[in-house]
Amino acid sequence: MSDFFMFSLVPLTVAVVIGMTCALLGNFLVLRRQSLIGDAISHVALPGIVVSFILTGMLASGAMMLGAGVSALVTVVMIELIRRLGRVETSAAMGVTFTSLFALGVLLLEWHDAAGVHLDVEHALYGNLESLIWFEGTGPAALFDPLALAELPPQLARVVLVWGLVVVFVAAFRRHLVLGSFDPDFAASVRAHPALVDLLLVTLVAVAAIAAFEAVGSIIVIAMFICPAAAARLMTDRLSVQIAWSQGFAVIASVVGYVLAGHGPGWLGIDASLSAAGMIATVSGLLLLCACLLGPRRHPAVA
Q1: Residue 250 pLDDT more than 90?
Q2: N or C terminus: fewer CB in 10 A for the chain?
Q3: How far apart are the C-alpha atoms of 177 and 200, rounded to whole Å?
Q4: pLDDT, tens digit, for every residue of 211-230?
Q5: Across the chain, what does the average pLDDT equal?
């Protein structure tokens, strides 16, 4: 029991919270056919985060957010320059920019000796859930001990704060999000401010991705933005039910993936463990596959 509270409680909670946060936003990205925005943000944020660490020497959340923001501005400029000078379509310019910046971020990680602070290629891609150890979590009593709670890994507070912001945003702008997702022109005609809501939605997607980046890496963030929401879309045509399905899929993927990463190889007689974030992403993909094969809304004529 003490081992669970010390080594598994915080990583599992962080994975579940991040999964639910990304899945909640992912519902509206799927409906707007903008699912890959999370992928794009994860790509362009990496070099900004690395440069902010190189300049400041620390993984402060404020510096990471600033670095990712500057990287986003550079991305916009690069896309426009490539589109105009190369005379190519915007989608092609975006593809070149996103992949180039992500490659630059990976190269910076390789060139800079950042492994000591868990900022290297492995942690950036696959995350660092296993290192979120709660040393004061010696048992259930620690949950009610203020001194023990004060020693919780700071990543937990960050992701819970972002989850709260996302829930408040969705609750406050639910009508605007629904109108903008299904009929942007009608939303504009009734002054639902679709452009402003779109900006807020993308901003929160960026905030969620960056807040989750240090703990879980880019792979699980991309997967959880897309897979639970897409799987939920194949289960129902009602938005409220879709959101509930996506939250359930996110929790299942997080819990099952974490357990399989730690114990799955042992069940097969292999003395090893797997990346928790990678396994969570894998399980979320399998859930989407099951929804594609078995979901009631899977048939194109019905959907």
Answers
A1: yes
A2: N
A3: 10
A4: 777 667 777 788 889 999 99
A5: 81
Entry pTM: 0.82
- Number of neighbouring beta carbons within 10 Å of residue 91: 10
Whether the per-residue pLDDT at 202 is higher than 80: the answer is no
**What is the C-alpha to C-alpha distance for residues 206 and 34, in angstroms, rounded to an integer?**
13
**145 is written with which tokens?**
């001990």
| SS3 sequence of the chain | CHHHHHHHHHHHHHHHHHHHHHHHHHHHHHHCCCCCHHHHHHHHHHHHHHHHHHHHCCCCHHHHHHHHHHHHHHHHHHHHHHHHHHCCCHHHHHHHHHHHHHHHHHHHHHHCCCHHHCCCHHHHHHCCHHHCCCCCCCCHHHHHCHHHHCCCCHHHHHHHHHHHHHHHHHHHCHHHHHHHHHCHHHHHHCCCCHHHHHHHHHHHHHHHHHHHHHHHHHHHHHHHHHHHHHHHHCCCCCHHHHHHHHHHHHHHHHHHHHHHHHHHHHHCCCCCCCCHHHHHHHHHHHHHHHHHHHCCCCCCCCC
For 95-127, what is each residue's pLDDT tens digit? 788 788 888 887 887 777 554 444 555 555 666
